[in-house]
Each structure stands twice: as structure tokens, then as C-alpha cells.
Specification:
The chain is α/β, with parallel strands linked by helices and 429 residues long. It has 3 domains: 4-102 and 200-257, Adenylosuccinate Synthetase, subunit A, domain 1 (Adenylosuccinate Synthetase, Chain A, domain 1), CATH 3.40.440.10; 108-196, Adenylosuccinate Synthetase, subunit A, domain 2 (Orthogonal Bundle), CATH 1.10.300; 265-422, Adenylosuccinate Synthetase, subunit A, domain 3 (Adenylosuccinate Synthetase, Chain A, domain 3). The chain has helices at 16-24, 75-87, 108-121, 133-141, 154-174, 182-196, 203-212, 245-249, 284-292, 311-321, 360-365, 391-404; strands at 4-8, 29-32, 41-45, 48-52, 64-67, 97-100, 200-201, 217-220, 260-266, 269-271, 305-307, 309-310, 325-329, 339-348, 351-353, 367-374, 408-412, 420-422. Helix 5 crosses helix 6. It is globular. The protein binds inosinic acid. Inosinic acid binds at residues 12-13, 38-40, 126-129, 131, 133-134, 222-223, 227, 236, 238-239, 272-273.
Length: 429
């Protein structure tokens, strides 16, 4: 029995929520392995709409949720999210949610530094979510992070706060931002410790037990390959590795446990925040895609930039992300266009590239090379089988498969969970 990892294949917001929810109903446990509360999933179950940032999506399907060590956890955000979904009738207890003891914590000073640095960057800002994700990962790598397990050791907390504050207050002062007091932070952390600690455990041990018992594990990625700190459009990226390989290190399992890697891609392309976007459309077509696709960020509320499907970019994501099959979402947004374009490569300084080079100058200069396909007049919305799709829509999907060098495993044709065409069950490897 295979496990499945779900990752974004573009710049995030590909509609992972719906696909993860669909897969979660077939899994026994859902594991978050990177990112933090910068992610945002909207899940519609019956007449309830859940907005999740940090909680693994399987919780709404009453599946065990695990937050792995690769996630940076804002404990206040976690408790607030638990309270929010509990008010909607969902039960989140230490019996249904586990948190890795070695997960680094996001403190208020991380958000403050994130926002102060963005403000100082002015026009060159990255467009972060301002939630302290980058500074928290920096502290992890710099070996000064406070981790979930530290909440059980007041002496450790106290010593770590000294080191953290020396670093952060120096930076905050330099940026003209407010500094933090140790006593207040220590008091806040000690006050939330009894609420967080019941969820904390060595999750690698539990995952090992579950795996040996033949349970199905779903690894739920956040953000996407083009926001990966190594493989994305650096520096306009998030601060974690978003590729499928991270599912192993970010949960504490071997790489063989990860199983089938499902990459999610929209049938067109969007991006929030700044950074290169070769197939972006700053015209009526881009506007139409945004309106029809309701392209507003779940976390930020910002309008997403829209453009044509960039097959060269997704092919790159397939290769570096380890994607075995694609789930193509929001095909219905393309209904009624007379013609559709697919990006197949780039022209940069007179040279042709099949991939997006890493150098920022080249990325900014990349002009897309397009292939034009006929659109379709019928509707794909709500289709549940290939037979219900217009012939041109099938051609569009097949051409994407050829260009990105990966099969389309799932096709999503509306926000409804059951409006999905399954070509292959990712759990049946
Ligand atoms: P950070 O993750 O808050 O540091 O933001 C870095 C970049 O990643 C910014 O361009 C954000 O807009 C983007 N980003 C972070 N999380 C998401 C997400 O869940 N979806 C889409 N973009 C995201």
C-alpha cells in the first residue's frame, strides 16, 4: 500500500485544499511537513467552510493529524485555529492532533522582524505573509530556535530567550522597530506551555508504528515548488523546501515511506507576492481569469496575479519536486475562451531556454514562448468523467501531459469535492 505526498507545482494556491481533502478521506493520517501558518486551505464540508492554516486538513475528516518537525509553529496561532474550528463543531484533542517535539516555534518577535525587514526593503519587498516564517527558519538553522519540547523546561526557555533576544533586539533596534522584553515573553510562553505540551511527542515514533501497521499516510505540502528556497524563483520564495523530498525529513521518516508524489497545478497560473512570472497577463484575459477563478489569497486576501499555464515551469517542478502525477485544478475557469496559450519555454537575451534559469536577471528578462490551442465552447464544470469533457478540453490536458512529462492523475472541475475525474488512484501504487 502506497503513501501519498501532495505538493504544489506552481507558486502555491493551486487548489491543494480540495485535493488533499479528497485524499484525506481515503487516508488514516495526514502529516504537515514544512511551512507554517503562511499556508491557507479552504475546505468546504457539508454546510461548513473551514479555513485552515496550520492544522493538517485530515482533521475535518476526523483523521489523525500530525504536525512534523519541518513545520515552524506559532503556538498562539495554533491555539487560535484550534479554538476556531472547535467553535465550528470539530473536535481537536491530543487524541486527534500530534505535534513534533522538535518543531521550532514562531514567536511574536519573528513576525515583527519579518514585517520590519519587508518595510525596509521598500519596492524590493518579497511580499511575505508577514507571519515570521523566514526569521523562524533562520533561527532553526542558526541553532537558536525555541522548539516545542523546550516548553517543558523553564530553565532552557530562559537561557534560549537570552540568546534570541540578543540577536533579535539588535536587529529590531537597527530597523527602528520595537524591541521585546524577556520577562514578558517568558511569562507568555510558560502560560501557554500547559495548553501545547499535551499535543507534543516524538512523532517519528508514531509514524513508524502507523507505517508498520499498514496505515495510509498522506503528506500534505504547503506553498509550492516554485516557492522552494532552493529550487524556486529565489529570493522571491518562502524559507522552506517545498519539494516532496522534504516530506521525509520534515516528518522524520525515510524517503521510501513518502510513496506517490502528486503535484497540484492549476489549468492556468497564479502567483501572490512579488517575483518573476513570465506568463503573467496584465490585460483583460488576466483580469477574467482572476474574476472567474476568485483569485484572492486565503491568508493575505491579496489579489493573485494571473497568467497562462507555464508548461516549462511545471516540467521543471515535476523534475525537481519528484512529481509522479499531476492533479490539474480549475479547468472550468478556462471554459469559453476562444484560444488558450501554453508556455513551452523562454527567450532570454536572444537565446531559447526550455527551463527557467536560476539567475534573477535572466528570470526577470524571460519572455515566454507560447503554443496556441483552440479553446472549447462547452462546459467542463462539474464533469466527473472524460466523456463529459469537450474534445478540445481533453486535447488541452493531453498537451499539458506531453509538455510537462508527467501524467494527469486527477482532474478537478469545480470546488465541489466529488467533481473530480480520477485517472489513477494515488494510494494504489
Ligand atoms: P513567507 O512564506 O511568508 O516568507 O512569504 C514568502 C513568499 O511566499 C511570498 O511571495 C508569499 O506570498 C509566498 N507564500 C507563502 N505562503 C504561501 C501560500 O500558502 N500560497 C501562496 N504563496 C505563499
Amino acid at each position: 500500500m502506497a503513501n501519498v505526498a501532495v505538493i504544489g507545482a506552481q507558486w502555491g494556491d493551486e487548489g491543494k485544499g480540495k485535493v488533499v481533502d479528497w485524499l484525506a478521506s481515503r487516508a488514516d493520517v495526514v502529516v504537515r511537513f514544512q511551512g507554517g501558518h503562511n499556508a491557507g486551505h479552504t475546505l468546504v464540508v457539508g454546510n461548513q467552510t473551514y479555513k485552515l492554516s496550520l492544522l493538517p486538513s485530515g482533521l475535518v475528516r476526523e483523521k489523525l493529524g500530525i504536525i512534523g518537525n519541518g513545520v515552524v509553529v506559532d503556538p498562539w496561532a495554533l491555539l487560535a485555529e484550534i479554538a476556531r474550528v472547535q467553535a465550528q463543531g470539530l473536535s481537536v484533542t491530543p487524541g486527534t492532533l500530534r505535534l513534533a517535539e522538535n518543531a521550532p516555534l514562531i514567536l511574536p518577535l519573528h513576525g515583527a522582524l519579518d514585517r520590519a525587514r519587508e518595510a525596509a526593503r521598500g519596492d524590493a519587498k518579497i511580499g511575505t505573509t508577514g507571519r515570521g516564517i523566514g526569521p523562524a527558519y533562520e533561527d532553526k538553522v542558526a541553532r537558536r530556535a525555541i522548539r516545542a519540547c523546550d516548553l517543558a523546561e523553564p530553565a532552557t526557555l530562559s537561557a534560549k530567550l537570552d540568546e534570541l533576544l540578543l540577536h533579535h533586539n539588535t536587529l529590531l533596534r537597527g530597523l527602528g522597530a520595537e524591541t521585546f522584553e524577556k520577562a514578558a515573553l517568558l511569562e507568555q510562553l510558560l502560560a501557554l506551555a500547559p495548553q501545547i505540551l499535551p499535543f507534543v511527542e516524538p512523532v517519528w515514533e508514531r509514524l513508524d508504528e502507523l507505517r508498520r501497521a499498514g496505515k495510509r499516510i498522506l503528506f500534505e505540502g504547503a506553498q509550492a515548488v516554485m516557492l522552494d528556497v532552493d529550487h524556486g524563483t529565489y529570493p522571491f520564495v518562502t524559507s522552506s523546501n517545498t519539494v516532496a523530498a522534504t516530506a521525509a525529513s520534515g516528518a522524520g521518516v525515510g524517503p521510501g515511506v513518502v510513496g506517490f508524489v502528486l503535484g497540484i497545478a492549476k489549468a492556468y497560473c497564479t502567483r501572490v507576492g512579488a517575483g518573476p512570472f513570465p506568463t503573467e497577463l496584465n490585460d483583460e484575459v488576466g483580469q477574467t481569469l482572476g474574476d472567474r477563478g476568485s483569485e484572492f489569497g486565503t491568508v493575505t486576501g491579496r489579489r493573485r496575479r494571473c497568467g497562462w499555464f507555464d508548461a516549462a515551469l511545471v516540467r521543471q517542478a515535476v523534475k525537481v519536486g519528484g512529481i509522479d502525477g499531476l492533479a490539474l485544478t480549475k479547468l472550468d475557469v478556462l471554459d469559453g475562451f476562444a484560444a488558450l496559450r501554453l508556455g513551452t519555454g523562454y527567450r532570454i537575451d536572444g537565446k531559447i531556454f526550455r527551463h527557467l534559469p536560476a539567475a534573477p536577471g535572466a528570470q526577470a528578462a524571460a519572455a515566454p514562448i507560447y503554443e496556441t490551442l483552440e479553446g472549447w465552447s462547452g462546459s467542463t464544470r462539474g464533469a466527473r468523467s472524460w466523456a463529459e469533457l469537450p474534445a478540445q478540453a481533453i486535447k488541452y490536458v493531453r498537451r499539458i501531459e506531453e509538455l510537462v512529462e508527467a501524467p494527469v492523475t486527477l482532474l478537478s472541475t469545480s470546488p465541489e469535492r466529488d467533481d473530480t475525474i480520477m485517472v489513477r488512484d494515488p494510494f494504489q501504487d
